[in-house]
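Rather than argue in generalities, we reproduce a single protein record, letters for residues, whole numbers for local backbone shapes, just as it appears below:
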Amino acid sequence: MLLKQERRLKVIQIMFKYLLAKNFGIFKRLECQEHQKINIIIGENDTGKSYILKLLYTIAKSVEEYTKLSDEKSWEQILSDKMLFIFQPSKLNLGRIVRRSGNTLHVKALLQGDKYSFSFGKGAKYSITECGEAAKKLDLNALYIPSKEFLTALDNIETFYKQLRAFGFDQTYQDLIEVLAVRASIKKLDKPLEDVLNSLQNLFQGELSVEEKRFIFKCCGEKYELSQVAEGIKRISLLTTLIRNGAIKKGTILFIDEPETSLHPRTIIALCEILFALSQAGVQIYMATHSYFVLKKFELIARKHQESIQLCCLEKAEDINAKFYDIREGMRDNLIIDTSIKLYEEDVRLDIEA
């Protein structure tokens, strides 16, 4: 009986389990099965890493907003807006998200055991009308942390988006700004999240705080304007705010685009440990990375804890090929590892020639 309960708990913690996308952007067909608590995407530039993150985020966020706004809008309406303002196709035309050599975009996903699907052709403009079964109301929340630090431009982004409703900053920024604006503070965190929060504060020896409607960084009893704080610290330490205000909790789906950006390798390794702890607290994590340190550290974590971590390797060919591995079973050949080996071989060759 206890074993069955443990298995059930593990299933509950994994919100997304399946994704199929056809004629989506540069992808002819992308099928991702058996999602894990942590899912890592690697590939050269322009292989669609961020596109995958944003598609999953769009689905989850549209369901989250539908749960809150179902009396005002249908899931189809919310999903259409999300697709438009997250992917920002030219001429505000959904049909431009469809692969050029394809006719119709099809998406299927399995989220908390429920099936979600939608499709549209090149003639689609503002609305998605072909959706599968009616969306369910789910208690979840999705967060997307972009690769660029944005806190120093927070007011400008918010003004730009709300007043102009124009392209330039995709809606993942605005969604995150709205979540950060929540001033609530959880008085008592669950022990796993409290431990993560302490680890984050120790990592940077401080935390983000809000004073007079603006963010500052508190460190060692001092207060610093964000312009005085390193970009990597600003970007990752906002996790402390998201934990404190309840935005990151059990059942959250967290998307991080290149978490290593502007961080020292030692900090990257510590951050990987923190993200693993978050996954154990019931947060499902998706990340895109170019970092050998991120990849290697998560391989070591997977082997040490005997925890499945999915690695998606995107490779350029006639079409974009996606290969999936469980790095708990060891690291397969990929471009990040290959590039590291080539640098090592060049180093050895120069020593021999010297």
